[in-house]
Protein: ATP-dependent DNA helicase RecG
Amino acid sequence: MKSFFTPHQEKLLNKLNIQNWFDLLLHLPVRYEDRTKITDIQDLKDNAFSQVLGKVIDVDIVFRGKRNLVVHLEDGCGDQISLRYLHFYPNQKAQFKVGKYVLAAGNVRKNLITTEIIHPETAVFNAQEVVLPENLTPIYSVTSGLGQKNIYRLINKALEFASSQKLLNFEILNHKSKTDGVNLLDSLYAIHQPNKNCDLQELNYFSTIFHQHIKYAELLSQQLYLKLSKDEFKNQKSKIFTLKNNNLKDSILNSLPFKLTESQEQVIHEIESDMSSGKVMHRLLQGDVGSGKTIVAIIVSTLILNNEYQVAFMAPTEILANQHFKKIKELFQSTDVRVELLTGSIKGRKRNEIIDDIESGKIHYVIGTHALFQDNIYFKKLGLCIIDEQHRFGVKQRLDLMSKGKKDGHQPHLLMMSATPIPRTLSMSYFADLEVSTLSELPKDRVPIVTKLVRDSRRKELMQMLKNELNNDNQIYWVCPLVEESEKLTLSDAVNTYEEFISFIPKEMVGIIHGRMKDQEKDEVMSKYLQKKIKLLVATTVIEVGVDVPNASFMVIEHAERMGLSQLHQLRGRVGRGAKKSTCILIFKENLSELAKQRLKIIYENQDGFLIAENDLKIRGPGEMIGTRQSGVPGLRIANLVEDADLVKEVSDYSGNAIKSNKPAAHRFVEFWFQDKNYLRI
Structure:
């Protein structure tokens, strides 16, 4: 990577989880815009992305609760449009001088009185003639300091590099290239530099033949990895952990204020049988939101600790790691087990002491984040790696953690946990070569969440009603799909919703959290919410996987009709984690399609995440975009197990034969995809 990017670019790209030039090519556009043409103002349609060209006739700063910059344009037909900026710099007004021409692109808002674009992208010219692009414009997920133009230039550089070096020709994909009529390089070029004649809807729905080809390649890399690593595991040995006299387990079970479900007991038996067999365990623990996966992981870890080996428990965020640490430390407080936390924010002498004590074996149970991957961290006798929310970690990261446990010659066991529902039919096909345990029931004391459907026209009324909930000492989540109005869809955004709330609720009671905030900022907000300092949290879907807030008993999700059912179910699971009766309100727009009605009916009537995923799979149409791209499978960035069920089966059927017919080619493909020749070093 260092030879391809500058150090500064490398640092910025790392924030987007881009480690090398191939990661960059797989950083696909989140959507596309057609900037190859200009639309007359009189032909603009409400809620449609458009590009207009007009002369500046007036610029003004108006007050609508706060200062707005408004630029008025007039096109050659004499029709007018306003460009509105809710957030602007002091010198921004000066660039829009009367008489200049402005090319503006964005989502149009149109009613009987006004036509406007909120936060458009603009270019200012002295004359009316402008040069338009020949291709559709890809829009990428970016980060501060690395905008659209810069990332586009880097991706084009990577495409030229791959083409000149002939790096994307794989014999294991030849059969698919013949069937599709395109290869991997063709597909990447077509997706990053789409011709203006391409179907814009297919591009935005990830359903072009080019997207399908890349999805197939990605799914194949995963299947080959799973099958090849499974073969490798057969030759790996682990210590035989004896089940007898496990006083730690008895101590934990006796301290619990509840009884384990039959499903939990069955899964514990499966995991303990694996770890006492002498063979390396590589098991995925699936469980619906609130099914008790964490306590299962803690109980099975007593087998490792009782045999005087260490346990590493990894979480995706510091606040989640902190929560696990407190729970685990409390459970082991009356034992000799030393439990410690290691995250990026622990520094200096304390950090060095923890690292030394891990290596010497003085620390028996360590909970951490990505900090556990660091090269200077070694375990004396690592027996079990537990990875929470495993889809948040790549394959290489898991291998890095497991490789830290080979000092005594034994391979540590691996237990991955996921709350992302994967339909059972797909799980059987995709994880055919991976051991899977499923928690199929919720604890009996879990209070069902009441789900309600509310029309968007009652939004203001609902916001006022929440004041009463806050007065009753309840905590509330209000979930908005997007962060700012300048995003493609004119959905309610977190920033404006937050400002609406603080206009009639004390500001110190309201918080906001979204994906563009730094991790430290997000952790601080969630900590205040946990401590009840914040009573109402306005959030985007970053809270989908997060901490337990037992006092949170009320959630509102805006534009529920646009979200995937699995995502809605995950969000809903953030409430109902305490003893209080909990409610989740799904706000939807009028005039829903039949498919949208069916899908909202499923989430309204069901609380079983796996059943919801199965039903979602049954009703979706070919190429239907059903929401979140979160796949629930480690390393999947583009494909989605539910949306791409047909491809999953095709890949699953092909991968086994591919290994038998040409194992070296399978190895080469997986090594390249993961950019790691040592991907099987476990």
Notes: The domain at 239-439 is CATH 3.40.50.300 (Rossmann fold).
